């Protein structure tokens, strides 16, 4: 890492990154990889990439984002693999397209490794400080001012302040300023941005209490081990480097719920002290009890925080209830009757800037040179933040070089493209979280083909090194060889008719390993084809089995485009439509759009919801006439 003195004696750069969370780290790494002199300003360099909530990376659709970031040369994938203490693939019972890898990581080690990784970028300088204002000349953002009076000039600036902008921490009837527990909030910067004509809003997120693992009776919980054949995030990872740790599953019950209800009178969420909107898909435990009162229990995952700590993260228990209520609640959960709480749970309110004010490059429409990325764009989660950071850092670097090129991704190219398109065209009134259902091209946007889709673009823009791009090209060549072999190799179907192995593999319940069993002419095609494991095996299987579905999916997308003007009757009852998501139904009932095109512009309404809606609208016409 470069000493702070070198920076302070030469306070100018190509790209200035403000904030060292997941968005900031990814933006800084991308900019530096592209050859731009980059300064990353963060209050504490030892907290780079700090996991404020659960020390885990990936999950449903989030794993896709991380794999795409890796294909574009990003760092979150490398650090997640390097610090993982458990790997699990979610949705294994479903098709390859929605398999989602997840890694439980060592919280402390993650930040250590992130600092080490970023310190190896020769064009990146990290300094500790707090940015309190922006420098604007002729309507263009050209620098920033630090709390200590120092100013830094830059050709592009990326704000990635997470939950720190005017952050307020809530726990019961107590509140205090803070961006995270024990860390100060950032004041003054929001005002500096809004003075430029950029609108700001308030959102809320939360975290559960932390528990002493030595005080937990795990015999009353269900043990959950990681995968023996893990899928890694980075193409460079060959094996798990750290020891494995299990997670555990327990549940709440009516006794727990009663304790929560008794404490609602001091809940900042239900007393009106919290004004910001929280994440719909990761609600606090008190919100679950109130909104889903018909549920008699909720699942709690007891997850380890690292190898050198006995601290446990109770995933599913985010709360801002008072401390005494938190303790009473915990002690009525099976296995936690003698539990010791090491840190209280709390909620945090913070400023964000509604993302409809951004271009697809994540540069603000109002102020040239100013880019926004991460939770201040209205997102929720490390993975979404990292993806936005990579795109913002790349475009900030391009702008600093005076290039006409921009780096954007379409909805049909990447989950990252879906994320950004949703944010800038639909906006968000609650923390946005990525799901596979949000992507109409999800059969195309798979884990196994992320490198084929994106590494070429990454190489073109200087994000991916040539050896990594060459390796991706070699893998594509292997894929072509295997598919050509299957197309040109004949067998017989159940009726004795000749058929290619390619067409046989399209059939349900036919696996590639079955077709290749006992063949002596496939050794040249690559390893693991017979074992039913490995990236090449999954890629071949997915490409062939999904080929017909992909054609139908493209047809459905065109069908939606052709029917954008289809009228939705005023008396149309959305409650009668089976197949709509809960969020989709709520939004449609509230807004009641006039036509399908208006419905498509509703934030939170997925392509799957639109497809279901179109089917029912067609049925109305058919029934009427």
Give structural notes.
It is a single chain. This protein has 625 residues and is an alpha+beta fold. It folds into 3 domains: 1-464, 3-Layer(bba) Sandwich (FAD/NAD(P)-binding domain), CATH 3.50.50; 466-548, Arc Repressor Mutant, subunit A; 563-624, GidA associated domain, C-terminal subdomain (DNA polymerase, domain 1, Orthogonal Bundle). 34% of the residues lie in helices and 18% in strands. Strands 1, 2, 6, 7, 8, 9 and 20 form a 7-stranded mixed β-sheet that branches. A 6-stranded antiparallel β-sheet has the order 14-15-16-17-13-18, with no helix packed on it. A 4-stranded antiparallel β-sheet has the order 11-10-19-12, with no helix packed on it. Strand 7 (131-137) and strand 8 form a beta hairpin. Residues 1-8 have low confidence and may be disordered.
**Average pLDDT, all residues:** 91
Q: How many strands, what sense, and barrel or not for the largest sheet?
A: 7 strands, mixed
Number of E-type strands? 22
CATH architecture of the largest domain: 3-Layer(bba) Sandwich
SSE layout:
Elements: H1 4-8, E1 12-18, H2 22-33, E2 38-42, E3 56-58, H3 62-71, H4 76-83, E4 84-90, E5 100-105, H5 107-119, E6 124-128, E7 131-137, E8 140-146, E9 151-159, E10 168-171, E11 174-177, H6 189-194, E12 201-207, E13 210-212, E14 222-224, E15 247-251, H7 254-262, H8 285-291, E16 299-304, E17 311-315, H9 323-330, E18 341-343, E19 346-352, E20 370-372, H10 382-400, H11 415-426, H12 450-460, H13 466-488, E21 490-492, E22 498-500, H14 501-505, H15 512-516, H16 535-545, H17 547-562, H18 582-591, H19 596-600, H20 607-624
Parallel strand pairs: 1-2, 1-9, 2-6, 9-20
Antiparallel strand pairs: 3-5, 4-5, 7-8, 8-9, 10-11, 10-19, 12-19, 13-17, 13-18, 14-15, 15-16, 16-17, 21-22
Helix pairs in contact: 2-10, 3-10, 3-12, 4-5, 7-9, 12-13, 13-16
């Amino acid at each position: 890492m470069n000493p702070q003195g070198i920076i302070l004696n030469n306070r100018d750069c190509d790209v200035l990154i403000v904030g060292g969370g997941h968005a900031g780290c990814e933006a800084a790494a991308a900019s530096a990889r592209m050859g731009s002199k980059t300064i990353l300003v963060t209050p504490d360099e030892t907290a780079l990439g700090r996991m404020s909530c659960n020390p885990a990376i990936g999950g449903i659709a989030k794993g896709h984002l991380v794999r795409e970031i890796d294909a574009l040369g990003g760092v979150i994938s490398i650090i997640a693999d390097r610090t993982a203490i458990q790997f699990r693939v979610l949705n294994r019972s479903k098709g390859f397209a929605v398999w989602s890898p997840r890694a439980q990581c060592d919280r402390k080690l993650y930040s250590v490794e992130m600092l080490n990784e970023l310190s190896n970028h020769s064009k990146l300088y990290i300094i500790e400080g707090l940015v309190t204002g922006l420098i604007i000349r002729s309507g263009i953002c050209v620098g920033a001012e630090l709390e200590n009076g120092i100013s830094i000039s830059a050709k592009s600036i990326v704000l990635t302040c997470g939950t720190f902008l005017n952050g307020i921490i809530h726990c019961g009837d107590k509140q205090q300023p803070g961006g995270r527990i024990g860390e100060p909030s950032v004041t003054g910067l929001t005002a500096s941005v809004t003075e430029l004509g950029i609108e700001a809003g308030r959102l809320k997120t939360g975290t559960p209490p932390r528990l002493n693992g030595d005080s937990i009776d795990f015999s009353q919980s269900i043990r959950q081990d990681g995968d023996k054949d893990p899928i890694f995030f980075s193409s460079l990872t060959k094996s798990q480097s750290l020891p494995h740790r299990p997670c555990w599953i327990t549940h709440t019950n009516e006794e727990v719920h009663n304790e929560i209800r008794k404490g609602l009178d001091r809940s900042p969420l239900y007393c009106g002290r919290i004004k910001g909107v929280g994440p719909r898909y990761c609600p606090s435990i008190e919100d679950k009890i109130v909104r889903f009162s018909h549920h008699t229990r909720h699942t709690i995952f007891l997850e380890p925080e690292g190898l050198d700590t006995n601290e446990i993260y109770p995933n599913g228990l985010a709360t801002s209830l008072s401390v005494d209520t938190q303790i009473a609640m915990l002690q009525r959960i099976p296995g936690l009757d003698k539990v010791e709480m090491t840190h209280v749970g709390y909620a945090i309110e913070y400023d964000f800037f509604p993302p409809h004010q951004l271009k697809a490059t994540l540069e603000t429409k109002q102020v040239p040179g100013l880019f926004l990325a991460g939770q201040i764009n209205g997102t929720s989660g490390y993975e979404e933040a990292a993806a936005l950071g990579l795109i913002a850092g790349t475009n900030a670097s391009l702008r600093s070089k005076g290039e006409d090129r921009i780096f954007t991704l379409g909805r049909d190219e990447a989950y990252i493209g879906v994320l950004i398109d949703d944010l800038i065209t639909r906006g968000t009134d609650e923390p946005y979280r990525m799901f596979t259902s949000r992507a109409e091209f999800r059969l195309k946007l798979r884990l196994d083909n992320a490198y084929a889709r994106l590494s070429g673009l990454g190489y073109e823009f200087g994000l991916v090194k040539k050896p990594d791009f060459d390796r991706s090209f070699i893998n594509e060549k292997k894929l072509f060889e295997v598919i050509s072999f299957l197309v040109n190799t004949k067998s017989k179907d159940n009726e004795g008719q000749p058929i290619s192995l390619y067409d046989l593999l399209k059939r349900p319940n036919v696996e590639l390993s079955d077709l290749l069993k006992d063949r002596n002419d496939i050794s040249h095609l690559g390893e693991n084809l017979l074992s039913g494991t490995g990236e090449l095996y999954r890629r071949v299987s997915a490409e062939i089995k999904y080929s017909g579905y992909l054609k139908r999916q493209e047809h459905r997308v065109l069908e939606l485009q052709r029917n954008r003007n289809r009228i939705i009757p005023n008396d149309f009852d959305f409650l009668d439509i089976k197949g709509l998501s809960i969020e989709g139904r709520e939004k449609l009932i509230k807004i009641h759009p006039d036509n399908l095109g208006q419905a498509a512009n509703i934030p939170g309404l997925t392509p799957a919801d639109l497809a279901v809606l179109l089917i029912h609208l067609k049925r109305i016409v058919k029934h009427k006439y």
